[in-house]
Amino acid sequence: MNTQNVRIPVKAWYGDEEMELQFPQTWEVNECRMIGHDTPALSDEQLREALKNPIGTEPLAQMAKGKKQVVILFDDLTRPAPTWKILPFVLDELGQAGIPDDNIRFVGAFANHAAMSQEDFVKKLGADVVRRFRVYNHNPYDHLVDLGKTSRGTPVLINREVMACDLKIGIGGLIPHLGAGFGGGAKLVLPGVAGIETTDYNHRILGKLGGDRSILKKLRLGKIEDNEIRPDIEEAVRKVGLDMKIDLLINNRRQIVGVFAGDFVAQHRAGVQRAKELYSTPVIKDCDIVVMNTYPIENQMIKGTWPGRLSLKKGGLAVMVVQSLEGQASHYLAGRFGTDYGGRMWGAPTGLIIPQAERLLVCSSYLSRYDLDMYGPSDRVIPCASWAEVLIRLLDAYPKQAKVAVYPYAAIQCPAQD
After folding, report:
1. Terminus of the chain with fewer CB atoms < 10 Å: N or C?
2. From CA 174, how far away is CA 179, in angstroms rounded?
3. Residues 6 or more apart from 43 whose CB is under 8 A from it?
4. Pairwise CA distance, residues 335 & 329, whole Å
């Protein structure tokens, strides 16, 4: 069989390899890349300059003068930005202000996800930082400070270690988000280092999640306008007093291509404008087959499902490539923890995660029954250990011709807006 091939990235944080997908020459295959595909990475000098010229605040070295205790918040491996790359410049700014190492600590701002290991800390922050500084996991159930409520009623319960510091810095990624439109900005604090009650209440402002998957029906991906989640978060974080937020934009190779630092609202809005240009992806409609590669957030495959909902015709075949060595990340708010129960916002799936698909093929070298249950009913979810196995099933359904859309890094892409 003569083939046409598409190469996709896989295994974020675990080698960042490539995988080749083969398709018959007779098929119409569309590789749907984001507008900012292969945007060049910023140089070290460009990273340093972006940090020295924040938006809406004074430079970090000046801001840090006279401060006693510093906390640096960072996200976990469900967020693909290489935080370690910009940390030397942040620490240099703090050093210029005379802050000793023992007065700086790092807190993992991963909300309701499972605790990080030392290996995770090293991947995110670098081995030198883990050796030099104390790094803590956030606990959403204990050691929280009550800061009252927002005007929308959200109880603001925040990590005690964070509130003990008089200089609060956050470093995270700015990528499309299903509910909040885009991540970044104040989200590193809420839900990042907030209590479970805080996150639960804030998330329900959008609409209860669960079996109806309402967050996907609303599909706020790439849209921050008229979104009640974001202003509630920002009101809460003003109470916390996040002094500087640093958001990193990445390309399809997980290289930093944008840095937006400063006031967590001002820098976020500036970053979102660039992110919309970078991640925007033209959508191919009415496809027989849609292939969604969940890189670079393979451990939260839900973030790579949107193309199936927008590109696949009714009765077509959906394919998800999920090469996550660690499986799907634990989520104490929305995850499943028993046969028919889970976190406060968990609901049993009532159908396929791509509702119009006849079947959904999951291509993964790291399959587990627990993870497969997240995709939908077992009689319509087909596990495939290799692309060769996927192709056999696709050819069985479409032996001659098929219209195919491949989204090579769907978890950070978002649909182009009219």
Report:
1. C
2. 14
3. none
4. 9
